[in-house]
Each structure stands twice: as structure tokens, then as C-alpha cells.
Design brief:
Arylsulfatase, C-terminal domain; 14 helices; 13 strands
Length: 419
């Protein structure tokens, strides 16, 4: 798992700047779900949904640092009970690290920082903990690649997998890379691959901001002071962090090949959410634009024929899918559905879902192939016709011609969530 990784930030998707050979190779041997959506455009809620197969309102973690409504049962519990070693490493973002999540104890950020020299640890802390640096700047880091959190996570994943293979134990590994999450300060070698002068700045139609709900217009002010040079530097930093994430993922995949286990292992790759990267004049996430909620999501494994699927899928689908692949019973109460019917190139079932959902605090989204409705505190605030307006610049929530669709989507949200 990578963090804050945009769906389009891959060279195999035709991105004009980033080079991601390891993730490209993984997708080439995978079922590539190209219409996959996170349950939340923020770290902890998204990860709880991925782990539990339940929507945000169900598990109760509506934002970071919020505890679940009740003790959670994760996919790792199911695999642990079936005899698997279940281990985790990296940026898991559990609200309480002492809670039983089904995994072996987490090697957290502090464990990584303790492996660094005092000077490198000070620099790493400054980049990660200073909000202005973390969210409004980008550039080259003096830290070597080996000092980044993702490098540590890859090393620990390799160590734990080797332990399991040596003990002839089946394993379930969640390697949660922090990259390309900000701060956008990759190793200097990766940052310097990109000429900021050649990086485009997203444009938007005249007057598009007036269509945004007021809270998003307010959020845009956080970056309104940035010069075009500073915006390009941030984008270059993000691209360098994407390439760092690709290298870290490649170390894990290459090691699976080296120990002869690549073709004996089911591999899922996704990200918790995307990154605005100055689309709609925003950085970070915390909103329902495609750049934040549309995520990469792929699965490969023994005997699977690589192909692309365009059907709408969600993070909550992972739990029941893995149970089906491992021959484990699917627990009651999951909100997701198994992706098994989509793992061959055959036509999807006629009753496959027609909408997906996302949530952050009291903001809910429902998206169909054509339409997206965003509701805040029970009131519709944005409606987009993605067929004619894929950039989400024309908010039609007050358009009388769209009143029927607005009410239809609102009722669908109300049938699933307490708005």
C-alpha cells in the first residue's frame, strides 16, 4: 500500500513525468481495477474501511485520531484464525496501536526513526512534523534513500516474510509505505530528475471557483500565496516521492521473486486516497474530487489472467475478496462484495453495483458512472455530471434540470447512511 497516491501517477497510465517501472510491471500481471474508490479521502477512516470491509459510518472512524465505535474485526483476524502469520509495518494509522487488529505488533514510525543517525532523525522529524513544511513546500531532501520510512518498511516486510517462509508458515503481510504522502521532499537524486519549469500548473475555467461549496473556497486560501515556482516545486517533490514509493515496492516484489514466492502469493496494491496536487487550487485531500477519491487498486495471483476492469469497485470489497480466494468463510455484516466475478475477463454480473460511496466526518459522496453528489450535514452541496464535466468544474446542485437526479442520489445516500 502506498499513501496519497493519485490514480494517474504511474508511467503506465501515460503520466508525462513520473517513471514507475516496478508498479507498472505489477499492473501488467494484475487485474487492474480502473474505477476503484476509497471509502474516505483521509488516512485513518480509509484504512479502517479497507481492513474491516465496512463503511465509515459503520466502523465509526470518521476522521484521523477517532476511535472506532466498537472493537473492530479485521481481515487479519480471519487469516490469523486460519493459521496465517499476519504482520504489519509502516503507516497503518490505527487510532490506538494497543488495540488487537489481528496483526502482530506494529513496527511504528518511532522504530524507524531509531534506526537513523541523530542528525538524520532530526531532519526526518522536521520534515514530517512541521505543518508548513509538510503541506506548503517541496524540494530535495539531504537524506539518503536508505533513511526514508518506505525503505525501512520494505526491509521489515522482507525480514518478516523470510521468517514465515523459513518456518513454512503461510503469511498475510500489510506493507504500508508512507510515500508519496507529504512532505514532498524526496532524495535529491529523485527530485532533480524533474525540471520544475517543465511541470504544468492545472488550469480551471474562468469562474469555476464560484461553483464550489463555501468550505472548499475557504480551503483554497491556504495555498493562494504560493508562486507558480513554488507550486511547481511541490509537484516535482510529489513526483519524486512517487518514484521513491515505486522503488520501495520494487524491493518487496523483487525479493518475493528471489525467494521463489512471487508466483505463490496473492498481491494487492492500492492507496488509501489520492492527492489534489493543485487541481481545483488545492493540495492534500479531504474532499470528494476525483483526484482524492479515485485510487489505484489491483490484484494478481496464481493463475490469474491480467486484464482491465472498468466496473465500479470499492475498498470495502477487499476483505470478502481475500476470504474467497483463501477459501475462508465470509463474515456477516460486511459492506463490500467479493471481486471474484471480475477476476476473469468474462462479462460482469448483471446486478453488479452501480454506485460507490465515500465519507469524511459529515460529508458523504455517492458516485455513479455519470453522476456525483456530495452532501454535507444532510444537505446536497455539489452535483457533477461527469460525462460532460469530467473536471468537476460545473456544480449543478441548484440546476432545476438536474433536480430529479439530485433527489435520486440523495435518497440512495439516505438509504445507506444516517445523514
Amino acid at each position: 500500500m502506498t499513501d496519497q497516491h493519485r490514480f494517474d501517477a504511474l508511467s503506465c497510465r501515460g503520466h508525462p513525468h513520473v517513471h514507475t517501472p516496478h508498479l507498472d510491471a505489477l499492473l501488467a500481471r494484475s487485474v487492474d481495477f480502473q474505477s476503484a474508490y476509497t471509502q474516505a479521502p483521509v488516512c485513518a477512516p480509509a484504512r479502517y474501511s479497507l481492513a474491516t470491509g465496512r463503511y465509515v459510518d459503520s466502523h465509526g472512524v470518521r476522521f484521523n485520531e477517532v476511535n472506532p465505535a466498537a472493537p473492530v474485526r479485521t481481515v487479519a483476524h480471519a487469516f490469523r484464525e486460519a493459521g496465517y502469520r499476519c504482520f504489519q509495518m509502516g503507516h497503518m494509522h490505527w487510532s490506538r496501536e494497543t488495540v488487537d487488529t489481528g496483526y502482530e505488533p506494529l513496527l511504528s514510525r518511532e522504530a524507524w526513526l531509531k534506526t537513523l543517525s541523530p542528525s538524520d532523525a532530526r531532519r526526518a522529524r522536521a520534515e514530517h512534523d512541521t505543518d508548513f513544511v509538510r503541506t506548503q513546500m517541496g524540494g530535495p531532501s539531504p537524506l539518503p534513500e536508505s533513511a526514508f520510512w518506505g525503505h525501512f518498511v520494505a526491509a521489515e516486510a522482507i525480514r518478516k516474510m523470510d521468517e514465515a517462509v523459513a518456518g513454512r508458515e503461510p503469511f498475510f503481510c500489510w506493507a504500508s509505505l508512507f510515500e508519496p504522502h507529504p512532505p514532498f521532499f524526496p532524495p535529491a537524486e529523485l527530485y532533480e530528475k524533474f525540471d520544475p519549469a517543465l511541470i504544468e500548473i492545472p488550469r480551471e475555467p474562468e469562474g469555476a471557483a464560484a461553483h464550489l461549496e463555501p468550505l472548499l473556497r475557504q480551503r483554497r486560501k491556504k495555498w493562494a500565496h504560493l508562486t507558480e515556482t513554488e507550486i511547481r516545486q511541490m509537484k516535482a517533490g510529489y513526483y519524486g516521492m512517487v518514484e521513491l514509493a515505486d522503488r520501495c515496492a520494487g524491493r518487496i516484489l523483487d525479493h518475493l521473486t528471489a525467494i521463489g514466492e512471487l508466483d505463490n502469493t496473492w498481491i494487492v496494491w492500492t492507496s488509501d486516497h489520492g492527492e489534489q496536487l493543485f487541481d481545483h487550487r488545492l493540495f492534500l485531500k479531504f474532499c470528494m474530487f476525483e483526484e482524492s477519491v479515485h485510487v489505484p487498486f489491483s490484484l494478481c495471483g496464481p493463475g490469474l489472467e491480467p486484464h482491465v476492469r472498468k466496473e465500479l469497485v470499492e475498498h470495502v470489497d477487499l476483505y470478502p475478496t481475500l476470504c474467497a480466494l483463501a477459501g475462508l468463510p465470509e463474515p456477516d455484516g460486511l459492506d463490500g462484495v467479493s471481486l471474484e466475478p471480475l477476476l476473469t475477463p468474462a462479462k460482469a454480473p448483471e446486478d453488479w453495483r452501480t454506485s460507490v460511496f465515500s465519507q469524511i466526518n459529515q460529508v458523504h459522496m455517492v458516485r455513479t458512472k455519470q453522476w456525483k453528489l456530495v452532501v454535507r450535514d444532510g444537505r446536497p452541496v455539489m452535483l457533477f455530471d461527469l460525462q460532460v464535466d469530467p473536471g468537476e468544474f460545473e456544480n449543478r446542485v441548484e440546476d432545476s434540470e438536474c433536480a430529479g437526479m439530485r433527489e435520486l442520489l440523495l435518497r440512495e445516500l439516505q438509504s445507506r447512511f444516517e445523514l
